[in-house]
Amino acid sequence: MCCGVKIEEPRNADLRRTYTPNEGFSFSTFSAQMQVRLYEGAPGSPLLNVTMSATPNGSRFDIVGSSLVLTIDRQDLETLPVADPISDPIAFVYDIIITDLTGFSSRLVSGPFIMLEGVSR
């Protein structure tokens, strides 16, 4: 498990990350949740919440083999606040929490979540 892993992506394309475990470990019996917030410890609802159940736009976690795959649809990324001016990147924070069958939770990864505007429309 690690922390301080930056995600930096344009909001005009889907985002996909694959988390592959060390030999002998599998995510197959785990559930996962990712939250994006304006800053660490920000109160209230997260700006973006992704779980094993898909959002209306299809953002979700999947188990593929022994790996955990995060997919965030660009429509969900487009709901995040934009910078001022809009051409600047904007920084948020995220973490991914995994939970085993006994209910024990641990942080898989966390860090800055930076959105770029991208070029194509």
Describe this structure in words.
With 121 residues, this protein is mostly beta strands. The protein has 1 helix and 8 strands. The strands form 2 sheets. The protein has a 5-stranded mixed sheet with strand order 1-8-7-3-4, with no helix packed on it. A 3-stranded antiparallel sheet has the order 2-6-5. Strand 5 and strand 6 (67-72) form a beta hairpin. It is globular, with a radius of gyration of 15 Å. The termini are far apart. The mean pLDDT is 92.
Structural class estimated from helices and strands: mainly beta
Q: Any idea what the radius of gyration is?
A: 15 Å
Shape: globular
The poorly predicted ranges are: none
Report mean pLDDT, rounded to a whole number. Answer: 92
Summarize the structure.
The protein is 3% helix and 43% strand. It has 1 helix and 8 strands; from the N terminus they run ββββββαββ. The longest helix has 4 residues, at 74-77.
Describe the secondary-structure layout.
Blueprint: E1 7-10, E2 15-19, E3 31-37, E4 48-50, E5 60-64, E6 67-72, H1 74-77, E7 90-99, E8 105-116
Parallel strand pairs: 1-8
Antiparallel strand pairs: 2-6, 3-4, 3-7, 5-6, 7-8
